[in-house]
Write a structure and sequence with these properties.
globular; mainly beta; 67 residues; four-stranded antiparallel sheet; two-stranded antiparallel ribbon
């Protein structure tokens, strides 16, 4: 489970559609989270950015060799 501590409460950030788990790589001062989501199919690891305003946004998969 991928969570973020916001105003004294835990918020589950979830996964991308079809995802089995998510992992955060970084959080900036604005509270935006970037990371990757493991999918059921072997189609690479889609990256995401999460914000309170938009939720989890799929950034797609980097070409082979970049991650």
């Amino acid at each position: 489970m991928l969570v973020l501590w916001i105003n004294g409460r835990i918020q589950d950030l979830g996964t991308l559609p079809g995802g089995t788990q998510s992992v955060a790589e970084a959080v900036n001062a604005s509270g935006q989270v970037v990371g990757g989501s493991q999918q059921l199919q072997d189609a690479g690891q889609p990256l995401f950015v999460w914000s309170r305003a938009r939720g989890m946004l799929d950034l797609g998969v980097l070409p082979k060799g970049f991650l």
